[in-house]
Amino acid sequence: MQGNIVTPSTHTARTTCTPSRAARELGLKRGEFDLAVHLGHIRTVPDEGGGGPRVPRAEIDRLRAGEGSPENLRTRVETMGTKEGAGLLDVPPGRFTRLARLGVVVPVKFYLNRYRAVVWLYLAEELRQFAADENNARLLSGRTPPGLREQLKEGLDVRARNWRVRQLGFLRRQSAGHPWAQAAAVASLLDPAQLAEIVPDPYERAHVNRFLPKVTTYGAPDSPTAQVAARILRATDPDEIAWYRADLEQAVREARAAQPAPHPAAVHSPAAAHSPARPQRPPAPPAVPAVPRQHPQAAEARRPRGLLGRLRRRHA
Q1: Strand partners of residue 112
Q2: Is the pLDDT of residue 274 over 70?
Q3: For residues 167 and 233, what is the distance between their CA atoms, to the nearest angstrom?
Q4: Cβ neighbours for 216, distance < 8 A, ≥ 6 positions apart
Q5: CB–CB of 158/109 below 8 Å?
Q6: Per DSSP, what are the bridge partners of residue 110?
Q7: What separation in angstroms does the CA of 207 have from each of 58, 187, 200, 202, 252?
Q8: Are 259 and 180 in contact (CB under 8 A)?
Q9: Cα(146)–Cα(67) distance, integer angstroms
Q10: pLDDT per residue over 37-47, tens digit each?
Q11: What is the pLDDT of residue 301?
C-alpha cells in the first residue's frame, strides 16, 4: 500500500544510493554486489527513513579509485561449485567434497536445485590461497589421513555449520553495533522455541524479533524445499545449539544493560488510585541457563576447535 512506502530523506538520498544503483555504478551484477557486501568489501549504512541498507556515495568513490576496480572486486567475489573447485585444486570432485565435509574448505553460499539438492559455492580466491599453501599438499594427494577417514565414515559434514559461522559474522557486521540487532543476529540461527526459552519476556522477545534479519525463502512454508533449507539456516547439532544459546544469553544481557527494550507504561486510573494497595509480586527469578554451569576447563572443552573455532574468531 502507498502508506507503507518508506522514502529516504533528502540528505540520505543525496549522500547515499540504493544497492541496485550502486551495483550498476560499480559495474557489478547484483549477486556479485550482495556477496561483496556480505564479505565486508562494500560498506552499507541503514536508511534514516527506516528502509533497507544504502550505500554511501563516498564508498562508491573509494571503490572506483581502487586499483583494478571493478575487476578486482569481481575477482574477490568469484564463486565456484564442487566441479570447478575440484578443477582449481586439481583433485577429483569426490576428494573436494570430502575436504569440504571436513571443513578444510568452507562454503560461502548455497542454493537448492530443482531436485532439492543443496549446491554449495566456494570463494575462488580462498581456494587459490589453499592450493598455494605447501602445508596443504598432503590433503590434495595420496590417501586421506586415517583420523580424517574415520570422521568421514562416521558421517561428519560441517559444511552447513561452517556456512552458519560465516553468516553470523556477516549479520554482526551489518548490525552496526546495535545491541539488540547483535542479539537478533544470533537468534536467527536458532529455532524460535529456543528464543522463547532464552528470552521469556514477551516485550524483549518482540524487540529481538524486530531486528531479525530478512531471510531468503525457499519454497512454501513447511514444504520439502523449505525443510531442507531450514536444516542449513538454523543450528541442528546439540553442541552447536548450546553454543548459540550461550551466545544469545550474553548478547541479550548486554543489550538489556545498554538499551532496555521498551515496555508499555502502566495505566493509572482514578479508581485505581483509591483502591486498596495490593502486595506486589516479587520479581521472577532469572531464567535457568540452558547450559549447566561447568568448571572453566569443562566449558573450554565444549568450544569448537580447529577450523570452526578459528572461523568464529575471524568472523565474529
Answers
A1: 118
A2: no
A3: 9
A4: none
A5: no
A6: 120
A7: 32, 12, 12, 9, 11
A8: yes
A9: 45
A10: 999 999 998 87
A11: 38
User: Can you read off the three cell numbers belonging to residue 176?
Assistant: 552496526
Q: Which three cell numbers stand for residue 71?
A: 575487476
Residue identified by cell 561452517 is 162
The pLDDT assigned to 291 comes to 36
| Contact call for residues 35 and 77 (beta carbons, < 8 A) | yes
Residue 275: what pLDDT? Answer: 43
In DSSP terms, 57 is beta-bridged to none
Q: Where are the domains of the chain?
A: 15-76, 79-157, 161-261+297-315
C-alpha cell read off for 147: 583420523
- State the angle between helix axes of 224-233 and 159-174 in degrees (0 to 180), rounded to the nearest 10: 70
Could you tell me if 130 and 89 are in contact, meaning their C-beta atoms sit under 8 angstroms apart? yes
The yes-or-no verdict on residue 74 having pLDDT over 70 is: yes
Residue 28 belongs to what H/E stretch?
A: none
What is the rounded average pLDDT of the residues 191-214? 94
Q: What is the pTM of this model?
A: 0.77
Count of beta carbons in the 10 Å neighbourhood of residue 53: 15
Give the list of residues 6+ apart from residue 172 with CB closer than 8 angstroms, or none.
182, 185, 315, 316
205 φ, ψ to 5°?
Answer: -65, -40
Q: Residue 232: pLDDT above 60?
A: yes
- Tell whether the model's pLDDT for residue 290 goes beyond 90: no
